[in-house]
Amino acid sequence: MTEFEPDWSATGLVDADPEGDGARILCGQEIGDIVIIAELWEDAPPLTADGWQDIAEVSVAWRSAFMDFGTTGDEDLAKRLELPGSGDYRLRVHGRNRDDGDPREDSDPVEEYLIQVWSAPQDQPITVTSTSETATVAERQWSGPPDDGRSASAFNSLRVGGDPLHPVPAPSPDPGHRSETPGGVRDGETRAVAAARELSEEIGHRVRPGEVGRGVAPCPGVWSPDEKVRYRSVDSYFFLRVVGVDVDFSGIEELERSLLDTFSWWTQPELRSATERVLPVGPADLLSRVLDGDVPVEPVALPWSE
Question: Is 153 a residue whose pLDDT tops 60?
Fold first, then answer.
């Protein structure tokens, strides 16, 4: 089974085990149906990006004569792709509907992956297209930890290997140190799912993960609660219009309640003219932009501090 620690920084979608035991595909949900189609080609198939959020390729030095893909741990349910034999192969992975929530309703889009395999010499990973929030967050999170730092998030992945496999929580680089501060992403959540949950817990406003849309701004930075261990976090900001929200603090935790003094809505002019220190830096400019209808296609990074 593929027990290696994947690195999502290259593609945000797929990573291969350097030992040749398998690969992992980053999933947008922990529990739910995932459609997987695997194809064996004699040569590189024609590239078609239509309808796919993310597409990436990696090389694998496969030690088995087959690949298994499955969404359960039951052997009789796993689907086997027979290979000509062991050797070097290229995997092209297509993914879509990766940002549509976890868990999902029956009416929500089903997460889908197309995996194309062909014999090819070893080559570097490539990203053909990357448009999902799941991929964006993963690439930034794994782009290199700070010195003596810890990663504050974990992701879910689908194992691809020589025996029946299923979606499992991928361990963080240091499972013993995780950020549990208010607003954190829990294991198995996408950023959109976490944002919807936090809205419900923090102010009692309930929305579906799909309603918060794509993140408009990431804010990566390093912080320390005690100056002994440093954590690397990636905050994600979403743009959501609301009307008539009755704020309800009954869902917040005791620690959060102890840190809360008051609540108020800030208008864009008030935010721009604030004499208090506002973090992250520059939200007023971004807010002006999105209020004018210019929602960025690519997220705009906000500085962690001045």
Answer: no
Tell me which of 114, 137, 169 is where a domain ends: 169
157 and 18 fall within a common domain: yes
* 245 backbone dihedrals φ, ψ, rounded to 5°: -80, 125
41 Cβ neighbours under 8 A, 6+ residues apart:
116, 117, 118
Give which of 99, 110, 127 is closest to 34, Cα–Cα.
110
Contact 91, 11 (CB under 8 A): no
- The listed range with the strongest mean pLDDT (64-68, 111-115, 215-219, 263-267) is 111-115
- Residues 264-294: tens digit of each pLDDT: 777 778 888 878 777 778 888 888 888 888 8
Question: 155 and 21 in one domain?
Answer: yes
Buried b / exposed e across 185-214, counting CB within 10 Å, b at 16+? Answer: beebbbbbbbbbbbbebbbebebebbbbeb
In percent, the amount of the chain with pLDDT more than 90 equals 19
Question: In this structure, are 132 and 69 located in the same domain?
Answer: yes
CA distance 17 to 5: 8
For 34, what's the count of Cα atoms within 13 Å in the CB-facing half-sphere?
A: 34
Q: Helices (DSSP H) in 96-214: which residue ranges?
A: 133-141, 191-203
Do 60 and 21 contact (CB within 8 A), yes or no? no
| Domain range enclosing 81 | 14-169
